[in-house]
Specification:
25% of the residues lie in helices and 19% in strands. It has helices spanning 62-71, 73-78, 86-94, and strands at 19-21, 28-30, 35-40, 43-46, 56-58.
Length: 100
């Protein structure tokens, strides 16, 4: 028999929401505030369908993307060598290909 408190089973106000860690800044946030990235072939791509498998989470902010690229965080998150097109990801995340 369980002795600890139980998480609410419905999606009500007290529901426990999963938190994920941004590979750029290392901050924790609900998955709804982050973008999930996956490896498609050998390149990193945005997973809009949340299809499962190994993924990495990133805030949709240019600063987090730049920090993840600088730290080479994608290779560690995916546990394999990956090709990251920073300009393409920047454009998909922010709508601008400029590195401001």
């Amino acid at each position: 028999m369980r002795s600890g408190p139980r998480a609410p089973s419905s999606g009500g106000a007290g529901a426990v929401r999963p938190e994920r860690t941004c590979v750029g800044c290392g901050g924790k946030a609900p998955s709804a505030e982050l973008v999930r990235l996956v490896v498609a072939g050998e390149a990193v791509a945005i997973d809009r369908r949340r299809s499962g498998g190994r993924g990495a989470w990133l805030h949709p902010a240019p600063a987090c993307l730049e920090r993840a690229l600088k730290r080479k965080a994608f290779g560690r998150a995916f546990r394999r060598a990956v090709v990251v097109d920073g300009d393409l990801l920047r454009g998909q995340l922010t709508g601008s290909w400029r590195k401001d």
